[in-house]
Amino acid sequence: ATGLGNGGAKLLAQELSKEEFSHVKCLEIQQCSLGLEGARHLGDMLRSNSWLTRLSLWKTNFGDLGMWEIT
After folding, report:
1. pTM
2. Which residues neighbour 1 within 8 Å (Cβ) at sequence distance 6 or greater?
């Protein structure tokens, strides 16, 4: 597992929201310690990011409530 966590998810979401990262089309997040707050940050980014076309989340720990934040 990595130590991305909620704070890392916030930083990642902020950076991926910038147009200079529009070349990023796919993001895979695996076995990270993401909670509900991290899921919320990713969800906010996805709502403003039109270039990311694939997000893979595997073995994250935010559960069903986190998935609601992302969708």
Report:
1. 0.85
2. 31, 32, 33, 59
